Each structure stands twice: as structure tokens, then as C-alpha cells.
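The following record pairs a protein chain with its ligand, iron/sulfur cluster.
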Amino acid sequence: MTDQILMDSFSRRVDYLRMSVTDRCDFRCVYCMAEDMEFLPRQQILSLEELYQLAQSFVALGTRKIRLTGGEPLVRQGVVELCRRIAALPGLRELCMTTNGSQLGKLAAPLFDAGLKRLNISLDSLDPTRFRELTRTGDLAKVIAGIDAANAAGFEHTKLNCVVMKGRNDHEINDLVAFAIDRGLDMSFIEEMPLGVISEHSRAEAFYSSAQVRERIAERYTLIDSAESTQGPARYWRLAEAPHIRLGFISPHSHNFCGTCNRVRLTVEGRLLLCLGNEHSVDLKAVLRRYPGEPKRLESAIVESMKLKPYRHNFTLDDEVQVVRFMNMTGG
Ligand code: SAM
Ligand code: SF4
């Protein structure tokens, strides 16, 4: 256990790390990747041991929550063992993962046994053809089997994530809510963010605000504003008809959530990103490889990096790409 904490220059405590364990993925979601992606060569990415050492240093500095993400974290060989080692770090309260669900059919139970506490699973459509269009390669049946495997393995508070795009999946919002109610899962609706250059649709034209999503939901359900917060960017609502689930709205455009930001992101290249919507970063892989076996060096680089954390992002609603890296590089 540690008394140390990480604090940025705006007196925000940073105790949440999102770690990308791969930039690769078995899907090519239209809002996240281009159809032809070039992935990083192996020597450029962190080894499992390096990922573990970084997690260890962050936890030594007071990090209480780590989320593994990517790319698709479950396509990284050895990820279950990595979970087991990170989950056992004393002082860490919660190890979670964001996944597209495609591998959960076989991995949900081993992940649960390894100490992973919670899952966020992406689900943008319940129509197999549209699901394939939006993910370019995904198989809806496999993902639904993965969601059911997660429930059966004992995961609680699993959350579904849906990126809403006008004209592509906005008409499915209430069917997705019904699915979440039926499975007893929370669900978050996300506004698309301008990360990376995509070609399939205009982000400005596809923009569908969280307020519009709520209007759609109000056509079928009674929404109750809830003051609940998880310190994250989502704002939560409940449904009178199904009070057992929560609906979250992540609105990087229409509601700026930077004031209470408590998180940083680590890319699989070992670059620490201080803000989702800005390029400020520090190369922790360089420190790790220059000073092997000297965790104090790494820890002081992490402490120093907090000075670079900007106050806020400034996404705007035009088709200009404001951050050139793709979401799979960012660690969503
Ligand atoms: N592959 C995993 C998955 O899809 O859940 C984890 C990585 S993915 C980058 C993490 C989350 O980011 C997903 O819920 C995805 O829908 C979301 N995402 C990706 N690109 C986005 C974008 N441009 N705007 C908003 N959310 C995005
Ligand atoms: Fe892969 Fe997740 Fe990006 Fe989709 S959102 S392409 S599943 S990393």
C-alpha cells in the first residue's frame, strides 16, 4: 500500500489509468479505424512484462483503478495472465476491461478467475447485417454469446457501450435499451469523437447528441435524471420501467466533463497521454528501457508528467480531425 498520490497542476487527483495492451483488433469499426490499418511492429510495443511494470509503478503512486483496453485487449496473447498479475497488486481496487466481446465466449470465465472485476462491452447494433457494416468484420452472434458468457461467469455491473451515429444506428436506440433491460446490464451511449481520419461517413453529419438519444428513449420509456456519478465522463439516468439498470451518456461535444478528470492513458507504445483530446504525452517506454530494474526512475517520470496534463479538450463539431491518432492507438 502507498501514501503517494498523483496530482496535476489543477489539483486534480489522478488515480485511474487506462492501459492499451495492443493496437490490433479483429474488428474495423467505422468510427474507430480506417479499413486498411497499419499496426505497430512488435519491437515497438510494450512486452507483457513491461506492461506489468508500468502498472506496478502507477499503483505504487496511488492508482486505484486500471482499465485494460486497446485495440481489442483480448487479441493480445497472454492477456489473462497479465490480468492475474495486475489484479494482485496491493492497493489496486479495481481492474476492468473494455472489449468488443468477440472472444468472451471462451475468455470470460478465465478472466473472472484471474481477478478482472468489470467489463464494458461495445454493442452498436442488434441487426447482424448492420453490425457487420459498422464493425466491417464482426459477427453479432459471437458478441451476444460473449455477453451471455460474461453474465454466466459471474461478472457484475457489466456495461454496454454504443456509439450513436445519425442514419446508421440511431433508430436502434430503444431496441438496444430493451436488450440491456432484458439482460440486466447498464448501457452508455457515446457521442462520436474526432480521433483519426475516417472515410466512411462525415462525423459532422453523423453527429447525434446525447440529448437527441434521450428524446428517442423518452418515446418508449420514462427517464429519471439521476445524480449518480462514477467520477467518469458519463451522466446517468434511470428508467421508471426498469430501475435495475442505469443509462449513461458520454457527451464529449455537448457536455464538457474535463473539470473532474482523474485519468491518464498509456498507449501500447509506452506513451503516456495526459488527455484524450490533446497530444501532450511522455515516452515512458524510453525511461523503462533506459533504466531497467529501476522503478524509481519510472515513478519520477510519471510524477513529472502530471505537470503536462492540460485542463480540458476542445472538440468541435466540424469534420476537421483534431487529434490525428486513432482511437485504437489512444486506448478508448
Ligand atoms: N476494442 C474494444 C471495444 O471496442 O470495446 C476496446 C477499445 S475501443 C477503442 C473503446 C471504446 O471506444 C469502444 O466503446 C468504442 O466504441 C469507442 N470508440 C472508438 N472510436 C470512437 C470514436 N471515434 N468516438 C467515440 N467512441 C469511440
Ligand atoms: Fe476494434 Fe474497439 Fe476500435 Fe471497434 S472500437 S475497431 S472493436 S478497437
